[in-house]
Specification:
Strand content: 15-25%
Shape: globular
Radius of gyration: 25 Å
Number of helices: 13
Structural class: alpha/beta
Distance between the termini: 54 Å
Length: 527
């Protein structure tokens, strides 16, 4: 049952006077529940509880944290069809997408449970003392990763489960030992409250400290602003627009004690179409990319918004095929009327630029809040001269840049902003001919793909979901996979510390059986 209230620790609260409703984009009507925006008092209480909980939670064993994470997964599954139906009513997305995203969310939680159960992720490093070393005796120094403190996670508009209340940021922060305060996304506050109820039940069942989790509603920016500026908040996780992510980054930087904001933001995910592949597989690639551009109504952060090739008859045929293929795909519903409006506004802004030619634009009538897919093309010289054409159009829109030669193509890549992904479509022997293309693309992206599509982000240890700014605020970190835990920790060293007072991860006996780096060698043995 959805109450429309905030979770302040494990208690429901509705002190704020401001209310709002979510929206069903498929039916084009407001949903029934009325949500209460968190008051300043509720924000203060949530942060205070989180700060107190941190003193307990940071010391909880990996085994207990694993139990907690698995319990959250179990409780989300127990929500069953109520969660799926609420998700669908707040997003316009189909049941298959809802169940698939729920599965991904469950998988992430269990992945982090396994990680903390093993425990070696703390990177325990030990250099034992050598008092006889000349001329200066060597001290005993031991290092490991420790949690930062309370983390604020902003729910994402396009992933109500996998990147929101119990999504990757939250799961990684819990695994690290950090309490989490979620600023629920107003577009799917009901979905967020149901998931918050699952976390609350898991907290009670596993005996976690009250305040290790809170879920705050907000229809505007005020709640998020207060949270980021609060001195007891120690880090922020965000998935969304460049404008939103940069605003949070600036707020956090201007605090008396600046804190990190790990924001995954805009990306047009360039696709490089090399000549031989264009010639031999242009029609096949066009069909594949028509599907990728329209997947999820283009509302994925890895949507291929830019395709770059060399001018010629083969590229002309590819553009024709892509334009024809994309018009055979039925338009689908976007997440919210505001997102539809932003899509149309940003698309029209691009179409108004000199030199841009529309090669496909869905003109038939569409249902309300459905997006019309569009393909455009532009000369490489024009693209280089007009940075407006470099900006993301969030939705089923893609632009083909026609370069006069390989030098201009390289220049286009080199002048792009940072991106999450870059793709090269080529025959196997073409990469040897264009190593400078690979190098140029590697400098601009976090993940490089060969003969595939960027849509689809595998949750695995090798995945890097991030990239140079503005794809993310810190290209050294990933928002997906087990290594995303490193955003919520810092390295910490003990020097000449009594063995019995060290954390178990660093004790001579190695009671947890961790793999550790001892005097330069990896070992699980005691010292």
């Amino acid at each position: 049952m959805i109450t429309g209230k905030n979770y302040i620790g494990n208690q429901l609260s509705s002190e704020g006077s401001k209310t709002y409703k979510t929206f069903n984009p498929k039916l084009n009507i407001e949903n029934t529940p009325l949500f209460h925006e968190a008051s300043s008092e509720e924000i203060e209480k949530a942060v205070s509880l989180a700060s107190n909980a941190f003193e307990i939670f940071k010391k909880i064993s990996g085994a207990k944290k694993a139990e907690f994470l698995n319990a959250i997964a179990d409780e989300i599954l127990a929500l069953d069809q109520a969660l799926i139906e609420t998700y669908m009513s707040e997003t316009g997305l189909p049941e298959g997408r809802a169940k698939g995203e729920r599965g991904r969310t469950i998988g992430q939680l269990r992945m982090f449970a396994e990680l903390v159960l093993n425990g070696s992720w703390v990177e325990a490093t030990i250099d034992t003392a050598d008092p006889d070393r000349n001329p200066i005796p060597k001290q005993d120094i031991r290092k490991m990763l420790v949690p930062l403190g309370p983390v604020v996670v902003f729910g994402a508009s396009n992933f109500p489960l996998a990147y929101s209340t119990a999504g990757g940021d939250t799961a990684a922060a819990f695994a690290a030992g950090c309490p989490v305060i979620v600023k629920s996304h107003p577009m799917h506050a009901g979905t967020g409250e149901l998931v918050a109820s699952a976390i609350a039940k898991a907290i009670e069942k596993t005996g976690m400290p009250n305040g290790v989790f809170s879920n705050l509603n907000s229809s505007g920016i005020e709640v998020g602003t207060q949270l980021v500026q609060h001195p007891k908040v120690k880090a922020v996780g965000f998935t969304g627009s460049i404008k939103g992510g940069r605003a949070l980054f600036d707020l956090a930087s201007q605090r008396p004690e600046p804190i990190p904001v790990f924001a995954e933001m805009g990306s047009i995910n360039p696709v490089i179409l090399l000549p031989k592949a264009t010639e031999s597989r242009g029609k096949e690639l066009a069909k594949t990319y028509a599907q990728s551009i329209t997947l999820g109504t283009g509302q994925f952060c890895t949507n291929p918004g830019l395709i770059i090739g060399i001018k010629g008859s083969s590229l002309d045929k590819f553009i024709e095929s892509l334009s024809n293929e994309i018009l055979t795909i039925d338009p689908s519903c976007m997440l919210h009327p505001n997102i539809v409006d932003n899509y149309e506004r940003n698309k029209n802004r691009a179409l108004e630029q000199n030199g841009l030619i529309t090669t496909a634009d869905y003109h038939d009538d569409v249902a309300v809040n459905h997006a019309r897919q569009t393909i455009t093309t532009v000369e490489g010289k024009t693209f280089l001269e007009n940075t407006t054409l470099h900006q993301e159009v969030f939705g089923p829109f893609s632009m083909v840049v026609q370069c006069k030669d390989i030098e201009e193509l390289t220049a286009v890549i080199s002048n792009l902003e940072g991106q999450l992904t870059g793709t090269i479509l080529a025959e196997n022997d073409e990469l040897d001919t264009y190593p400078f293309i690979v190098n140029a693309l590697q400098n601009r992206v976090g993940r490089i793909i060969f003969n595939g599509v960027p849509t689809g982000v595998e949750v695995c240890p090798s995945m890097l979901h991030g990239g140079p700014y503005p794809a993310s605020t810190d290209s050294r970190f990933t928002a997906v996979g087990i290594h995303s835990i490193k955003r919520w920790v810092r390295p910490f060293s003990y020097q000449s510390w009594p063995n019995h007072l060290l954390p178990d991860e660093l004790k001579n006996e190695n009671p947890l059986g961790l793999s550790r780096l001892v005097n330069g060698s990896s070992t699980s043995d005691p010292i």
